[in-house]
Amino acid sequence: MQQQQRRLKERSSSSAPGEDAHISMMVFRIGIPDIKQTKCLRFNPDATVWKAKQQVLCSLTESLRDVLNYGLFQPATDGHDAKFLEEERLLKEYPQSFEKGVPYLEFRYKTRVYKQTNLDEKQLAKLHTKASLKKFMDYIQTSAVDKMVKFMDKGLDPNFQDSDTGETPLSLAVQCEPSGGEAIRVLVEGGAHIDFRSKDGLTPVHKAVRGHRHTALLALLSLGASLTTRTEGG
Questions:
Q1: Each residue of 9-48: pLDDT tens digit?
Q2: Of 171, 164, 94, 167, residue with least CA distance to 131
Q3: Is it true that domain 121-223 has CATH number 3.40.50.1220?
Q4: What's the fold here for domain 26-109?
Q5: Which of 12, 29, 56, 121 has the fewest Cβ atoms nearer than 10 Å?
Q6: How many other CB atoms sit within 10 Å of the CB of residue 113?
Q7: Could you state, in order of their start, the residue ranges of all structural domains in the chain?
Q8: Which of 181, 180, 170 is nearest to 203 (CA)?
């Protein structure tokens, strides 16, 4: 993981904010819950969220596990739902409130963003045991879409890497044509991040392109995936 972060830092250092001093910069407070830190950073509003994320990575003094699956998260405020910012969009496309001072974002591991407030923590814990997650992956493999939906309706978070294969629910669904399109749709509707990476650092789009999974690729693009999503190498 440290090597992964180092490579990301080396690539993003060439686009440091100092080179764009003439551009009006945006200042954010960035909370990083996993290492209990908060930083104030300046970002170019015309840069993508991906570039802003790399800038946060450059500022880290501690390594984070599976860092490519971290994202910039906007907590719920003033009637707006909490969400992770889409990495291919420009930072300025996300309006910020300055009423309470410097706008605040979090740099955190991508998880399902629940709309329900009355979640049963015990039920959630049962859903996320190794055995339950294996069963969920089996449902994807056998195209048991109805059973997948039931698991997610109970609160399962479909953003995880299989402990044996390193695949994610979405990356597995991509490889399960011809039924993959329907599985992809219900996974995204159930809270799966469309750019959540498997253990090899690839997104579902990368897997679809490399495996020539045409139906799956069209399904991903129709749900908002981007063909310009970066690999670990840039």
A1: 555 444 444 444 456 889 999 999 999 999 999 999 999 9
A2: 164
A3: no
A4: Ubiquitin-like (UB roll) (3.10.20)
A5: 121
A6: 16
A7: 26-109, 121-223
A8: 170
